[in-house]
Design goal:
Blueprint (H helix, E strand, L loop, with lengths): L4 H15 L9 E2 L14 H12 L11 E2 L20 E8 L4 E2 L6 E2 L2 E2 L14 E6 L6 H5 L3 H14 L10 E3 L7 E3 L11 H13 L31 H11 L8 H4 L2 H12 L10 E2 L6 E2 L4 E2 L7 E3 L7 E2 L19 E2 L21 H6 L6 H9 L2 H12 L2
Parallel strand pairs: 1-13
Antiparallel strand pairs: 2-6, 3-4, 3-5, 3-7, 8-9, 10-13, 11-12, 14-15
Amino acid sequence: MFFSKKSLTLMATIAVLITENVCFAVPATEAPAGFDGKTNGLVDQGTFDADRVTFEERDTIETGLGPVYNAEACSECHQNPVTGSASQVGVVRAGIFDGSSFKELPGGSLMQDRAINAAIQTRVDNRANVRSFRVSTNILGDGFVEAISDETLKQTAALQPSQSGGGIQGTAVMVEVLEAPGNYRVGRFGWKAQHASLLSFAGDAYRNEVGVTNPLVPTEATPNGRSVAAFDTTPDPEDTGADIADFTVFMRALKTPPRDTVLAATTAARSGEQSFQKTGCGTCHVATFVTAPTGTVINGGTFTVPEALGNKTIHPYSDFLLHDVGTGDGIVQNGGPSSRNKLRTAPLWGLRTRSRLLHDGSALTIADAITRHRGEAGKVVNQFNLLGQKEKDNLLSFLNSL
């Protein structure tokens, strides 16, 4: 076989590189974005559509709905503008703070708003001096968020004090992976970063929000701790695991929220993005992450990052860490006593689709949401207030493009 001099030189170079074990990092590619109801490539479109039907399916009493619940389908809370997005739908959390520690009420801190029988309607106990609403979170792009390595999130937290002059320090909460008992990972889903895997998130939400028990959460939610046995007509677990598996595949296959490309290209929005970073907003609302390499094993060994999710660049504008920014809800879940007034940094991708902001939906404008930040974000808000009106308008233009 004949090889040219050029080919021989190339082959020799490759041999040297192999011998010396030189490794070249594969450049990350942008994750697909869109409000188009299309798969991100994790599964084919037919599978994605079938899983979306399951995600949108309304449960009934016969299929396990309730006995206490907040919604009849996952899509009731994740729908604007497409299935998987956020919504204005909120839930109630409550508990007791005795001056030193937070205590859950019998039945937990989540107060389900609906019941299949008026006799078991959950109500906030008069003893509960901690009361809060929480609006539904966006889950578009969460398959990529799940694929961010723990090390990346921990490093983000470690850099924040030096980036902020010591004012900001995010907390990476280690939470148990429900499908791999005894294995812990950095939480990243939910207002308290209470879940690290989308299967855990699905199992928890199916029981707590829809009332359908499943292999990961096999016991019924109770109204103020009272038994629901007399009203529970289907055997537990009501989902064999098939539904939460479909929910998980659907969530992992969702594209990320797209930018308003027309607005994003304007001089105002581009200038506003610079002000966003200059004021320090980007310390917590981190613009860019790269997911773990394809083949990385996560979630206690239960999931291997596939090519569709691995080594992808995403722009969530969040660090997925807990912070005290003065808007906390007083509820403790997985983060221990110090997390009482901390919340996960809200991802800002898809912000333009939200009409109610902050964890409780109480802010109706972006400017109001910004200026209500305190605590770790106090210096950042001061920097925002020092901006001229045009700079503020430009910054808001940037945020409105997300």
